[in-house]
Amino acid sequence: MATTEQDLRKQAERNVRKRRELGAHIVAYVVVNAALVGIWALGGRGYFWPAWVMLGWGIGLVLNIWDVYFRRPVTEHDIQREIDRLRS
Questions:
Q1: Residue 49: inside a domain, yes or no?
Q2: Can you tell me whether residue 75 is helix, strand or coil?
Q3: Could you say which DSSP state residue 48 is in?
Q4: pTM of the predicted structure, to 2 decimals
Q5: Structural domain contains residue 3
Q6: What are the Cα distances from residue 22, in Å, to 32, 68, 70?
Q7: What letter would DSSP give residue 73?
Q8: For every one of its 88 residues, what pLDDT tens digit does the chain have, with 9 covering 90 and above?
Q9: Which domain holds residue 19?
């Protein structure tokens, strides 16, 4: 299957959009968690409960980073291999 300029453009647009969304996700993570740490500090400190939010949300952030930078796209070879598997 030949890749056309239009296909390449669509993929490039998806990649740019995913990177921008990741950037927004990182900013939201930092801002919200900084606010939670501020609330914790103003509330007398004690048990560091914001760590639970940071951990849970951090797992989601790591998965988002993996999706944007490390997940390989589905190829025609992958599809054909699955078709062959289903036939056998």
A1: yes
A2: coil
A3: -
A4: 0.80
A5: no
A6: 15, 8, 13
A7: P
A8: 457 899 889 989 999 999 999 999 999 999 999 999 999 999 999 999 999 999 999 999 999 999 999 999 888 999 999 999 999 8
A9: 13-87
